[in-house]
TrEMBL record:
Coiled coil: none annotated. It comes from Pleurotus eryngii. This is CREG-like beta-barrel domain-containing protein. Residues 4-128 form the CREG-like beta-barrel domain. InterPro entries: CREG_beta-barrel, Split_barrel_FMN-bd. It holds the Pfam family CREG_beta-barrel. SUPFAM superfamilies: FMN-binding split barrel.
Length: 147
């Protein structure tokens, strides 16, 4: 399923706007550790294009008054997805309940493209978490539950 995300943490954890009404949010809530995997690929996924799966779990801030760095998270997320202003947490006019959430990757599986030419395999978490931010690129994420 397609999902918006934004990279708003220096350690590569991703910010999600968590809508309990969605199927994948339900799946995450129903798994004991709120497990999820998010695949990030180029706008047109293809066998020769790099993509990465971030496998970890999701912390959902259901108490909207105690979200760490809430203002910074919201500004960062809206800079990436301006249209999300219509479904922010604590907006009485929003169509659906929404919460800020964070996906903390625990393993990172990278497929660079074709195996004879590109790296395919797990990337050590500390390398992922320590990587500097890169220039904005056109990416899309799809989120699936993982047990
Ligand atoms: C990543 O950083 C955020 C704060 O920006 C922190 O809450 C979270 O626990 C960190 N995740 C990991 C896996 O260290
Ligand atoms: C994430 O999952 C690990 C085990 O897979 C678990 O130890 C940890 O408590 C989970 N974190 C959250 C926030 O559920
Ligand atoms: C949310 O957190 C605040 C501050 O810690 C607390 O006063 C309040 O009772 C919490 N609300 C709920 C519904 O747990």
């Amino acid at each position: 399923m397609q999902e918006y995300y934004a990279s708003c943490h220096t350690n590569g954890s991703l910010t999600l706007l968590f809508l309990p009404i969605s199927r994948h949010s339900q799946n995450i809530l129903h798994s004991n550790h709120h497990a999820a995997s998010l695949s990030v690929s180029s706008a047109l996924p293809a066998a020769r294009s790099p993509r990465v799966s971030l496998i970890g779990n999701v912390t959902v801030y259901t108490n909207t008054t105690v979200v760490p760095n809430r203002n910074a998270i919201q500004s960062c997320y809206l800079a990436r997805h301006p249209d999300a202003r219509w479904w922010l947490p604590d907006d009485d006019d929003a169509a659906h309940i929404a919460y800020w959430a964070r996906l903390d990757p625990e393993s990172v599986y990278f497929v660079g493209g074709f195996g004879d030419k590109h790296f395919i395999g797990y990337i050590p978490l500390e390398i992922y978490q320590g990587a500097p931010a890169s220039a904005e690129v056109s990416l899309q994420g799809s989120l699936v539950e993982q047990y």
